[in-house]
Write a structure and sequence with these properties.
about 220 residues, alpha/beta, 8 strands, about 20% strand
Length: about 220
Amino acid sequence: MSHIYISPSILSADFGRLAEEIRDIESAGCDWVHLDIMDAHFVPNLTMGPPVIKWIRKSTQLPLDAHLMIENPIRWVEDYRSAGADMITFHVEAADDVQATINKIRNLKAKVGLSLRPNTPVKLLEPFLSEVDLILVMTVEPGFGGQSFMPEMVNKVKFLRSKFKGHISVDGGITAQTAAICVDAGADVLVAGTAIFGQKDRKLAVHSLLGAKRSV
């Protein structure tokens, strides 16, 4: 990959000083902002909604990727697009009609991402690979941060890279060590929470994730 993108998971930020946290990751050289949207139904956690995303949009020019871990996401894509999301990523398991959801996101002039849980067969994504901009491979069970990386998910990345020319993102337990494994397998977007927001020096954290792949 000619460019590796760093997409910090805002869920790990200090929400009491969120504007400062966003400025910090911008100055550290991060590329996107990853928004973990959870509904306490599809996953056992509840996070932020469109009003928070709208505020984040006012605080940064970085692309916002809204990762919808919610049931029947087609109901909500317009709200998140209106709030300022540039890309809307949803789960193949959560959508009643995957193609219709893709079409609706496209009609809203947003980029489309498709994700899957660790136990979901990667071949379920194959009919849609030509329809989306990004595939998000969950390397932990979605719902909570701070989980350990699941190395068996690397085979999904390799399989997808052999068939898919768009962005492949990995999310969960991403550290300098696991990032290198994922990049070698074909990932080009690294979603990291604690590995960035848990460090005092965010620029050093970005360097650590990238290794020798890109200078900041």
